[in-house]
Amino acid sequence: MVPEIIEKRLKDKMESRGVSQSAVDCFLGMVSRVFDKEPAHVPLATVETPDDALLVNRPTDSKLLKEAAKRGGELLDRVAVIKLNGGRSTTMDKRVPKGILIAKDGRPYLEIVIRQMEAMGKSRGRNIPLVLMDSFFTHGPTLEIIGRFDFPVLTFVQNQVPRLVEETLAPLETGTDEDWAPPGHGDVYRSLQQTGFLDRLREQGCKWAFISNLDNLAACLEPWILGLIEREGIEFLLEVTDRTAVDRKGGTLVVRNGKLDLLEIAQTAPEERGQFMDLKRFRVFNTNNVWVDLDALEGALGEPGMALPIIQNRKTIAGEKIIQLETAMGAAIGSFDRAMGLRVDRERFFPTKKVQDLFVLQSDACVLDSMFKVQVNPQRPSSLPVRPQVVFHDNFLDTPLDMHERFGDPTTVSLVEAEYFEVSGSVFFERDVKIQGRVVVAAPETDEYRIPRGSVLRDATYP
Known about the structure:
This protein has 463 residues and is an alpha/beta fold. 24% of the residues lie in helices and 27% in strands.
């Protein structure tokens, strides 16, 4: 049990911030689970790799695929699109919400998502609700951007919880917003319920919700998936893709206690993380694209409610070692009886978590199609991976703000024929540079190395 004095401090702090009583009670329950030393790690001996019966694939039969797409198209006005818009762009430019960063062709993420929804609605003749789950950090700037468009966008603000001092689990007290954090994207379900949006969507005739990260511009509505969900009576569908070395630390699907579950690397003991990253044992990677039946969600949120696994995210803030309690959206898969994983192509998964990802997105390796969906450039050779791997060392570039200190115009660097691109040291790229194949650029320690305009770098290490 949490000591009364700490529980009171947490409760008073949350109530002073206007947090709802149900959210306060939920968070105190999470703190109690941590205080009572609920195991923070899942022994890998207790989980299994899901077999093909729990993972479905895109239909290979063209007739079945066409039928699923046709039926899904007829159901589009019964699905809501929910985008997770609470991101602070902590690995890029910490000063602004990720949604307002320029993503592609001079457009911020929020604008591209709105354009995607406009294009889908017009092409299908359907009214498809777009809902944004903001955080206290992103809500104000988001309202400014969406106010520029005629397209209706619904917003709600997810819960906020105190960060905890690691030693005592008392609330962090800096007197600033650093005391607070969103409790992870697993909060989307409870926030939908607490804000009344779950009831609102169901009253408007929505049967399903498609939920994904705002920064994954490849995650758009796909009618055949909706048709498949209805045909199979699936209550919860988590899109997964084949795991690669690049994302071996990401969440994976497992079978635990006879049911599908999501396992994150933070839930594994340090000595077992090498096994967690074994691509042969754990073959799929969570894209964080979720489809959920809203009636089934209402049932899952009833008594005793979802008790998602707690992720203890440890950080140092203002000189204090703290714990940030979070939950993962995909972990809800264990709360549904008819839950499945869906293997999808890599094209449906392109989040931009780091500066390197943003660099690739803004390059000619990717294009926005007529529906404003991010696609592989048709001119990219099929022999290459879907997207090039880019590695920027910290001594070269750390945030988007540094881009123009390192590039004459980063969007003019051609990656359409690149497989691998690595840069370290003080390097400056002039405009219109082409990267082809595998290229490494490493500047001498004491000198700036300049790549002239129009250079073609191909399958070599420079200088």
